[in-house]
Write a structure and sequence with these properties.
mainly alpha; 470 residues; 28 helices; two-stranded antiparallel ribbon
Length: 470
């Protein structure tokens, strides 16, 4: 990956102009529900005269909005330049005084359009708010409590632009409110505006203080959870992984992302299945950051990638011709580093990485007599870390293969470590295995039964022979 002078410079090279309408001010997601509805709103007309006649708005606000509504782009640009204060006052006044959804929609589209035409125009609103002691944030964030979903999400997008495109930053309380709301939207069942939610995060997470706040709110977990959803589409995959890429530039956050058992596996899953170059590109860039940024976690990141079966995937990608030199360089780099680590890994390192990943497969190591004879005692390391993870998997996993292997490995530990029975009883593993004997899956029941027999019977080899003869 090339050296860049700033994150913005790097972002500009990483945002491909595919399936999106790229503007100098940001990216409007083509095909998103918000974009489609905004087009419909622009084609509507508002009877501003009825509002002024009903004394719902002032004569000054009526003159400004009615004139602005009829102007072309050049005339509007002139108004913003010469009468920006009045325009900002009018827009904010209309949002606070009017209640009809159709009208609020229209005003929000006007504001969003003028910001999209030139991102520096956020200063118009910030300057007016500062001069007149107006809470700009509540003017827009307050709208996310409305019922109309277009209003909610258009106001959110405008809030993100106001919070990122100028020098003014969201105060801590408003920031936590907004980021918490975005996080909740990601995991809200049936949310039809996920592209817009992701767009907000793509803007917000470029700002260091916002990134730190989102991380503290455990926002990565929500992003990963959404990526794990089925049928979210490649565009949303790209947007969400873009946010992970932004987060991965902070070494402390990257370290936690490596330690998060789900981040690298979900990136590996998407990479295996995606045929979209922009998605491949951002995943590879994120993986490289996760390998490089946290210096002390380089090996852990590599092991997690190896355990997620990325060596084979990267070997295929490494053989492909790429027009984009960044992809080629990053693929070659990661592939080389993973192969170096593969050479150094012991069987136990691989086994521990697999358990930490939370995805167990019947690889040869699980049924290797030699492995368990030589390594059973190592499950006691780091205050029984591996045993505790196996216990957690037996409690929480919904994957039958993972449950089978967790039960099997618990039994093998007891069989090969002299004081293993006492240890698993103290950790609650024995009860968990016994509960699995009533599982719906017959394979899980079988492995649980065998594990319990290993716990209860000392002469396992003799019992094994008897079982085979039955």
């Amino acid at each position: 990956m090339s050296t860049y002078q700033s994150l913005d410079a790097m972002i500009s090279t990483r945002e491909p102009n595919m399936e999106t309408e790229a503007h100098s001010t940001g990216v409007v997601i083509a095909g998103s529900r918000l974009t489609a509805e905004a087009c419909e709103v622009r084609n509507q007309t508002v009877n501003w005269q009825s509002y002024v006649q009903g004394k719902m708005i002032s004569q000054d606000d009526y003159t400004m909005i009615a004139d602005y509504d009829c102007m072309g782009p050049e005339e509007r640009a002139n108004i913003i330049q010469t009468k920006g204060d009045q325009l900002a006052k009018t827009c904010l006044s209309l949002l606070s005084r009017l209640t009809r959804d159709q009208t609020i929609r229209y005003i929000l589209v006007i504001v969003d359009d003028l910001l999209n035409e030139e991102r520096g125009r956020v200063v118009v609103f910030h300057d007016f708010a500062k001069k007149n002691n107006v809470n700009l944030w509540s003017s827009f964030l307050g709208l996310v409590n409305r019922q109309d979903q277009f209003i909610i999400h258009q106001a959110a997008v405008i809030s993100a632009k106001l919070a990122c495109w100028g020098k003014a930053r969201l105060p801590e309380n408003d920031l936590n409110f907004f980021l918490t709301w975005l996080k909740e939207q990601l995991t809200t069942a049936g949310c039809e505006y996920l592209h817009s939610v992701a767009q907000c995060l793509q803007l917000m997470l470029r700002i260091e203080s916002y990134k730190q706040a989102f991380f503290k709110l455990d926002g990565i977990k929500s992003i990963v959870s959404t990526l794990l959803s089925t049928n979210i589409g490649f565009q949303l995959q790209y947007q969400l992984i873009f946010t992970l890429w932004l987060m991965s530039f902070d070494p402390r956050i990257a370290q936690r992302m490596v330690g998060n058992s789900a981040v690298i596996p979900v990136l590996a899953d998407v990479l295996r299945e995606s045929d979209k170059e922009k998605v491949v590109r951002i995943i590879i860039a994120t993986l490289r950051n996760l390998m490089d940024k946290p210096e002390e976690k380089k090996k852990d990141a590599a092991v997690s990638m190896i355990q997620s079966k990325l060596v084979h995937v990267l070997s295929i990608l490494n053989g492909k011709p790429w027009a984009d030199e960044d992809i080629q360089e990053d693929v070659e780099y990661i592939y080389e580093k993973l192969n170096e680590v593969v050479q150094d890994l012991s069987n136990f390192d691989e086994y521990a990485a697999e358990v930490r990943s939370g995805r167990l497969e019947w690889s040869p190591v699980h049924k290797s007599e030699k492995f368990w004879r030589e390594n059973a005692h190592r499950l006691n390391e780091k205050n029984y870390e591996i045993l505790k993870i196996l216990a957690h998997l037996m409690d929480s996993s919904e994957d039958s293969t993972t449950l089978c292997i967790a039960a099997h490995d618990t039994g093998e530990y007891v069989r090969h470590f002299p004081r293993g029975k006492r240890v698993i009883e103290s950790l609650g593993c024995k009860e968990k295995v016994m509960r699995m004997m009533t599982h719906n899956d017959p394979n899980v029941r079988k492995e649980a039964l065998l594990a319990v027999q290993k716990v209860m019977v000392h002469n396992w080899e003799y019992l094994g022979k008897q079982l085979k003869s039955v």
